[in-house]
Sequence to fold (636 residues):
Amino acid sequence: MTDLQSKNPDFDRVVRDSFSRQPFMAFVGAKIEDLSPGICTLTMARREELTQQHGFFHGGMVGSLLDSAAGYAAFSLYPENSTVLTVDMKVNFLNPANGTSLRATASVINVGDKIYHLKGDVYSISEGEETHCMTGVFTMMCLLGMSDAPNLGRIKGAV
Amino acid sequence: MTDLQSKNPDFDRVVRDSFSRQPFMAFVGAKIEDLSPGICTLTMARREELTQQHGFFHGGMVGSLLDSAAGYAAFSLYPENSTVLTVDMKVNFLNPANGTSLRATASVINVGDKIYHLKGDVYSISEGEETHCMTGVFTMMCLLGMSDAPNLGRIKGAV
Amino acid sequence: MTDLQSKNPDFDRVVRDSFSRQPFMAFVGAKIEDLSPGICTLTMARREELTQQHGFFHGGMVGSLLDSAAGYAAFSLYPENSTVLTVDMKVNFLNPANGTSLRATASVINVGDKIYHLKGDVYSISEGEETHCMTGVFTMMCLLGMSDAPNLGRIKGAV
Amino acid sequence: MTDLQSKNPDFDRVVRDSFSRQPFMAFVGAKIEDLSPGICTLTMARREELTQQHGFFHGGMVGSLLDSAAGYAAFSLYPENSTVLTVDMKVNFLNPANGTSLRATASVINVGDKIYHLKGDVYSISEGEETHCMTGVFTMMCLLGMSDAPNLGRIKGAV
Fold:
């Protein structure tokens, strides 16, 4: 979709604040590279503890990065006082993620009342060369009336 | 499937050895709880660095655990001198993973020549109560003639 | 899940009535074999026009049958004055569907406020032998305040 | 991917011949609109027998059309004396398919030795307006040494 509009004028701050409250993203060294309404790009540098037995990024880690990118791409469009939930994640592993860093970009392709559909791709980067290592489709839910903060207070009947 | 037979009499040692060579699994504290031909169960205790903004296990982490369980469930059936590759991962997030530990079990449901189909589930465990938090279907490939060790030497024409 | 309860005491009539209003199901000769709250089994006999180039049931047709079974398994739990929508369908093709009939069973594995998660399997049947030919996971949405009848009147803000 | 090359110089004839041997495609009135190496577009006109209870194209039918487009997009790249098998299909339903025709396009995004990854989209068309109604990712397998003709003779060890 083009020219997606966020329902929250303060989306940039809200998304970056939520991202900074995900201990797992800090643990694995993921960063927001780019953010605009409905599109989010995350990057992650290779560290040995993120790899599998062949020395590549662990597939689960590749998927985790893309799942987070998709969640924040959706969340960037949501109104205030809401949070995001992954309903479903479907990814194909195209090539080994054997680069020195990963770049995951997800974008919203359809906006429903509660359901947002997204697509996403991960590239493995090494010495300026990019290898397409994952593609996928995600379903995200917008939970209205529910705080994104840790002690989330679920408003009765909100979902 | 019932009564699955491994093509490798030494499957238990081979799988545990491969698992021990996945730095990412050690990094997140995942352990093999149970292993039999075609079935693998992994567990992981909650640590703050594995969580997202609501204090639950990060969804990507839940998926990573199940992906590894599925990979090793398939690999447990493979012949010697082979390795495993995730082709595709499809998971639904059923409930927040807000327990003190996770248990992921995957099992092979169909064996092809190169393609293995698996299903898997993750339960979040807290004070003896189990919550079903993820279900999924996986496609794994058996790469014959390719070592599972880090400096994998790909035999020409093997796949 | 066990002991699923429908929110509609009249679910059996409502599901069969909706099924009978799907021209495509009549066109391909699909029938309801079994129905209970949260579980639906459909069958379809082989006819040449349902096949692909190898003479097997067309894969899309196998998926269509399972999608319908999943939709009605979810719908059987819904309250009155609602309808069902497939959000997402993920299926693996395990074996060729080369039997004389198909049997597709889907069941609800998790009930949310609006989102229902289901799993399903299709067996190809020939001379009493069953071959597992498809497995999958589905996400269905419950659209409240929206009629299941053809000229659906969507109540503003219902979804 | 750009500039995909078919391994079969005669791909156009081979794909159209295979398509013409799918009784199900004729039954539902699907046609090849466009075909180039790695990309296939199919169309289908609305007929009442292809609809569900709301009068829209049945979701299974929408998925069937996209599955066929994906299969032939992959098959268009294969060498002689091979056939195609869907390993896995993952689709999201974005909007009701309430147009007077459907157009499904699938394209290969990655070519492996045996495994081909594809993406695809379906648009519902009505009075010149297009609605994006489905997006998905597919895994297709190339079965070498196996005829695409009905009485397929499977060469031992071919897969």
